[in-house]
Write a structure and sequence with these properties.
Layout (H helix, E strand, L loop, with lengths): L2 H12 L4 H7 L11 E4 L4 H4 L3 H9 L8 E7 L2 E6 L1 H15 L13 E5 L11 H19 L3 E5 L7 H13 L2 H6 L1 H18 L2 H14 L3 H24 L17 H10 L3 E4 L2 E4 L9 E4 L7 H16 L3 E7 L3 H13 L8 E6 L2 E2 L15 H18 L7 H18 L7 E2 L2 H4 L7 H18 L15 H23 L3 H20 L7 H25 L8
Parallel strand pairs: 4-5, 4-9, 9-10, 11-12
Antiparallel strand pairs: 1-3, 2-3, 6-7, 7-8
Length: 564
């Protein structure tokens, strides 16, 4: 039973508002003594020609106690509803148990295609922590939209084109060693790339040589293309190892190079719309009307840049997928680029530019290190993952209780800790990596939420073949139990809100609060030792909590171990 929908239907009968509109306006009060649902009457003031507080008072009198409601009260301009607790608890737990991992899913996205571009590392450069943030965030956003019924497509727009490949080709021809590169491709390619920059500062002619080789690559030169493909294949092989660790797959790895034969059309479209302006030999689109700097389309030597390729990619994607939304999960440092690129689409007459959105991700801060890829001072994602797993394994092995598969469990916990810290807060806040906080089994951490799930599953295993269907939910009459069920029900809204805001942390927050509530309940209420009629209800509540935690963590990309 959907209590929000039932309340909306009751209000609709008493007003001129549509049920769907009312349902969208209904809120969850911040405190339990203010009710379980609240409807703001301000929207009715104009049609009913009365003050919101008067409307709320009049409507409250027309509600009677029934199977859904205990009472309705006016509080200022709000109409607060107190649900029938036993019915609410029963309906919510039964819905969770029936739907299991489908709980919180909807069909709202049916027939709508959502593209999510994320990860997008650069070929021949290390997969650093910033790429990992984009990868984890984009993966969660895709999962959330898929849970709501959207037809999702995961795109990895690999950085496999641009003048840097001219530099890398020159570096390889001067200092490359195939035997060394084959053993450790990313690190060795990075070394010679960094060396190129050091040497180019002494010998600027190297920059000219690099530009020449990139131009050759654009023109399909056999040698340049073969070297480029070699760098790409070696890099993708390394990247996929990390994706496998995080159980992430992509529907497309079409990178910048895929659009190299589609950029002439972009230039033609912009010229046809009289948008291209010459500036110091380069071709730009003036964006002064949007208070933005110009967007360069062609360099003075005629070479394209990533803006040109992004334009080509967007047009191709619209034609190929006819997307409802195209979401770009990229660091906040690229915000200006996306504003420019979207506004060029706008000026070119592509009305669907409004369906393209940049979802910026946060910066990662370590206490004593900074990211600076050009000089090679980078924090590799693999380093972070290995350290998380290693530290978790130390914690597991230090405990008296020995596990059969400690390494496998350490991997799930360690990687879950990384994902959790990335998705713990909203995307506007920097991510502060602290191993002590991340790997803590107490407080707001991935291991804490995972451990709550493990605790609940352990209780269910100990219960054995108990008759779960014999539960009488009228025995779940404490505030702790009711608040827990409210958090279970709130998971449905959390999934929708996470999609609307492109903020996975909304789900992270919900499952964390649920874990806290369950641990409080576990420490103050007997479960296995309770009386039989109470035991059945509390076991079903435990099963529902485990189910929602597993589903919520799963939407974030976090595995739930059965033991830890």
């Amino acid at each position: 039973m959907d209590f929000r929908k039932e309340i909306a239907a009751k209000i609709s009968k008493l007003t001129e508002l549509e049920e769907e509109k009312i349902s969208s306006l209904i809120e969850i009060p911040p405190q339990g003594n203010m009710g379980d649902y609240a409807f703001p009457c301000f929207t009715l003031a104009k049609t009913m020609r009365k003050a919101p507080n008067m409307i709320a008072a009049e409507l409250a009198k027309q509600f009677e106690q029934d199977a859904i409601l205990e009472k309705a009260e006016a509080a200022g301009g709000y109409l607060n509803f107190f649900v029938n607790k036993t019915e609410f608890i029963k309906a919510t737990i039964q819905e969770v148990l029936e739907k299991d991992t489908d709980f919180g899913s909807t069909k709202e996205g049916e027939g709508k295609k959502v593209l999510v571009e994320f990860s997008s590392p650069n070929i021949a450069k290390p997969f650093h922590i910033g790429h990992l943030v984009n990868t984890v965030t984009g993966n969660a956003i895709e999962k959330i939209f898929k849970h709501l019924g959207y037809d999702t497509v995961k795109l990895n727009h690999i950085g496999d084109y641009g003048t840097q490949f001219g530099k890398l080709i020159v570096a390889y021809k001067l200092w490359g060693n195939d035997e060394v590169i084959e053993k450790d491709p990313i690190n060795e390619l990075l070394k010679i790339y960094v060396k190129f920059h050091d040497e180019a500062e002494k010998n600027p002619a190297l920059e000219d040589e690099a530009r020449k080789y990139f131009k050759m690559l654009e023109q399909g030169d056999e040698e340049a293309t073969a070297l480029w493909k070699k760098f790409k294949d070696l890099s993708l092989m390394e990247f996929k190892k990390l994706y496998d660790d995080f159980n992430i797959t992509f529907d497309s790895y079409a990178g910048e190079s895929f659009y190299s034969d589609k950029m002439d059309e972009v230039v033609e479209i912009l010229e046809k719309n009289n948008l291209l302006v010459e500036s110091n030999g380069a071709k730009i689109v003036d964006l002064e009307q949007f208070n933005l700097p110009p967007c360069m389309i062609l360099k003075s030597d005629g070479a394209t840049i990533y803006a040109t390729r992004d334009l080509a990619a967007a047009i191709y994607r619209k034609r190929t997928y006819d997307f409802y939304k195209c979401i770009y999960v990229v660091g906040n440092t690229q915000a200006l680029h996306f504003k420019q690129f979207f506004n060029v689409l706008n000026l070119a007459g592509f009305g669907w530019y409004k369906d393209c959105m940049h979802i910026g991700t946060s910066l990662v801060k370590f206490a004593d290190r900074k990211l600076a890829s050009r000089k090679g001072d980078v924090i590799f994602a693999k380093e972070v993952v290995d350290e998380a797993v290693s530290k978790t394994l130390e914690i597991i092995e230090s405990k008296e209780r020995k596990l059969e598969n400690p390494t496998e469990i350490a991997k799930k916990i360690g990687m879950g800790a990384i994902i959790y810290i990335i998705l713990k807060n909203n995307r506007d806040r920097d991510i502060a990596f602290s191993w002590e906080d991340m790997l803590s089994f107490e407080g707001e951490s991935g291991p804490y939420v995972q451990y709550t799930y493990v605790r609940g599953k352990s209780i269910l295993r100990k219960a054995g073949d108990f008759n779960f269907e014999a539960a009488d939910y009228s025995h779940l009459n404490s505030e702790d139990e009711f608040n827990m069920v409210k958090l279970l029900d709130a998971f449905k809204d959390a999934v929708k809100e996470a999609a609307e805001r492109y903020e996975p942390f909304v789900i992270s927050r919900n499952v964390t609060e649920l874990a806290k509530a369950y641990n409080k309940f576990y420490n103050t209420h007997p479960i296995l030792n309770a009386e039989e009629n109470i035991k059945a209800a509390r076991l079903n509540l435990t099963k529902a909590v485990c189910s929602v935690i597993k589903t919520g963590l799963g939407l974030l990309g976090i595995d739930t171990p059965e033991n830890m």
